[in-house]
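wait is this the right file?? whatever heres the structure
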């Protein structure tokens, strides 16, 4: 286990243990979904 993974493990504790990595990252994405979508829209507009 890398230091980074250990840090995440401590930070997110039992929740991280209960869900797999995919669910973990999806939950992070859900928290930031709106800002991510806005960034993508800005990026796409530059190329339209």
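ok assuming it is, sequence goes like this
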């Amino acid at each position: 286990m890398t230091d980074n993974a250990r840090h995440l493990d401590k930070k997110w504790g039992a929740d991280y243990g209960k869900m797999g990595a995919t669910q973990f990252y999806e939950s992070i994405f859900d928290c930031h979904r709106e800002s991510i979508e806005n960034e993508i829209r800005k990026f796409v507009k530059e190329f339209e």
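The mean pLDDT is 70. so i think its the right one actually
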